[in-house]
Amino acid sequence: MDRVVELWMLWATLAVALIIYYLSILTRDSCSARQPPGPHPFPLIGNLLDLRQGHLHHTLARLARIHGPVMRLKLGLTTAVVISSRAAAREAFTRHDRRLAARAFRPSGGVVASHLFTPHGLASARGVREHKVRELVSYFRERARREVEVGHAVYSGVLNLVSNVICSVDVVDVGADSATGLRKLVEDLVELIATPNVSDLYPFLRSLDLQGWRRFAAKHLEKIFSILDGIVHHRVEEVRSSSSKETQNNDFLDALIELMSTGKMARDNVTSILFDVFTTGSDTIAITVEWAMAELLRNPSIMAKARAEIKGVLGDKETIEEPDAGSLPYLQAVVKEAMRLHPVPPNHVAAQGRGGRRRGQPKWTSEGRHFEFIPFGPGRRMCPGLSMAERVVPFILASLLHAFEWRSAGRRVSAEQLDVTEKFTTANVMAVPLRAVPVAIT
Ligand code: HEM
């Protein structure tokens, strides 16, 4: 019943708003001469109808072909500008970067870049990353010749990798349901953030929280934050009860607590930053690995070439190390191609477009300077985890190909039939999670 009342309230408010804003849009239209071109907006709803079908990144690419590389969209009363060419991206993120970076600014990027992913920080956590990737390989080894859900196992392995790099603890057992629980919490939350929110479209309604958005988010955040708060609390106590440096873990959390104890950071910010790094770091790496594996399984000749490269470079070396992945240019190219075909955050899709080139010949760099391929975002908003992701994604993939031969699950499914339909939830994920059979070779 509450839901019905809420819906009526929503419609009634929107109806009144329609009248008021129809009038204001009429007057405002006279000043819109300097706005970029875009599909014709309807009063109040703007271009929402243009975006209602299919995947957002495909729809935006289609609209950009009609309206040009710098396109204006009205999302309710909010104006958005969509950039979809290399030249426009270059201009936006060089000439206007400061202003763009200021949108919804979160403090995590700078702290993460300056304390977690310094060359020294990255080098000193290499052992931890290698250990966690080997645990993941062991997980698959125990299940050799059986069907496994690749993304699920990789996600829990990566959760532990990220949690160990930042705060030296495992948050889940690899492949266990607890990983699904944590992921579900985060997924629900991010899905909520990605859901069209009336208040974003009509900012003057924000204080009413008509969809219960804030209440729902608060409940979820509380659960996730209580897990992270527990980790922070435990560490603070550990540091407090010991004067020696022995208890120091020399991880990111130590650096955050140091900032906190010198008054440079508030306690709440510590948990928020951990939350940012956990949620953005784990998902993106795991989803990228899953897409790369799916594309390799769909393209047996590319898989064979990637495996031949590993064999050629590593020979009979039993245990692969992280820097080895740096000597595998073809494998690195496979990763970039997977990111181009299936951009994890789809708003950073490669400007060159999908299917523009043949598979297996990627030529882009991923540093966000060339603006044709910006999976990590460009300019000031560029992902601070880039240097870790560039090490870890190819390393996981190389480790999985080095240790196993992979077969598609389900005997009657041919390679080309593997379903790579995309689904946009928290990110651009596989609609049908990848299942495959690892056959141990080392
Ligand atoms: C394949 C892997 C990854 C991809 C494709 C990716 C992509 C991105 C993108 C596009 C953004 C910018 C979003 C925006 O414009 O607001 C971003 C931000 C961010 N990423 Fe990544 N990322 C990856 C891995 C990681 C890792 C491994 C970490 C940390 C462990 C990380 C931490 C962050 C954080 C903290 C931000 C927010 C920065 C801020 O708001 O200032 N990412 N990432």
From TrEMBL:
Which residues are listed as membrane-spanning? 7-26
Key words, A-Z? Heme, Iron, Membrane, Metal-binding, Monooxygenase, Oxidoreductase, Transmembrane, Transmembrane helix
The gene name reads: ga21208
Any GO molecular function: heme binding
Native species: Eleusine coracana subsp. coracana
What the entry lists under Pfam families is as follows: p450 (PF00067)
Gene3D superfamilies linked: Cytochrome P450
The Swiss-Prot or TrEMBL record describes its family as follows: Belongs to the cytochrome P450 family.
Query: Which branch of life, at top level?
Result: Eukaryota
**What is the protein name for this chain?**
Uncharacterized protein
Cited InterPro entries = Cyt_P450 (IPR001128), Cyt_P450_CS (IPR017972), Cyt_P450_E_grp-I (IPR002401), Cyt_P450_sf (IPR036396)
